[in-house]
Amino acid sequence: MSGILIGDYHVFEPFASGSVGTVHYVTHTVTGKPYALKRIKRRHYHDERAIQNEIEILRTISHAHACRVVEVFTQRFDGPDIR
Asked: What sequence ranges are listed for the domain Protein kinase (predicted)?
């Protein structure tokens, strides 16, 4: 399986994008389970608290048609663009 490796995930082409980031299809390297990865562009936030607020809001969402937060991590990415 191809894809750029970020953390424990193989990251593939984005399937959605917005003003602050993109959402990619990913698979976990060990389990092979599919997930969605939301990559947030930190420069769009004025402070760290704004990012933490979004994460906390996303953690509270529980709906059949919405993704739930499974993992949150921060990583500086200097590799090739995965747009």
From this structure: 9-83
